[in-house]
Give the backbone structure.
Amino acid sequence: MTGPSLSVPAYVQKNIRAVYKTEPRLVITMAYGVFQARGTILYCPAGCVWYDGERAVHLYRSEQLASLVAPGHIYGFDVVVAVGELRFFKCRQRAEIQSEIEKRIGFRIPEGTIQELIGRYVDAMVALHEEKVPQIRGSFGAEGAYVLYVDGTCEEGSHLHFACLTGPPPIVLWSAKIESENAVQIRLVLKEVDA
């Protein structure tokens, strides 16, 4: 399958003419399937510097490629989302996720990699949730009061998955694995939720 046309923005092309290096890179996305990207990294021979916040940028990479896949990764953001949605919204197991993704893009992702992608999805959701804490707190009303639903589930011989929710609509305020539902563990959970 042919991947997207990856280009450097016009404002960068106008001021930068020199190629620093070209990187061939395998990329796998839901939108384009499996393709070989050739990212051309440019630089300004005159020593131009562009600032991305506080960080000085001397090398210029494709913004399009960066919007598809994280640096140093093969699987695109849309693959991470597809895996996460299959796992958490459709309750699929790794082998089922592997089969479903293979049907969609014609590429078999190893089960261990599926687990890694699930972890990346969870990490992204945690970061997004933490970023939105002020808005979530603001939704509780002027008094800051809310109803807290707590629940723990486990399978025999495993840790307890404990979650604290409020709503409607249901909003997960905290979720993690804990050793047991004893008073000490629950007190620590409630301190996390209140923080």
About this structure: The CA atoms of residues 174 and 189 lie 8 Å apart. Residues 10-68 form one domain. The chain has three domains: 10-68, 77-131, 143-194. The beta strands are 18-29, 33-43, 50-52, 55-57, 59-60, 149-153, 160-166, 171-178.
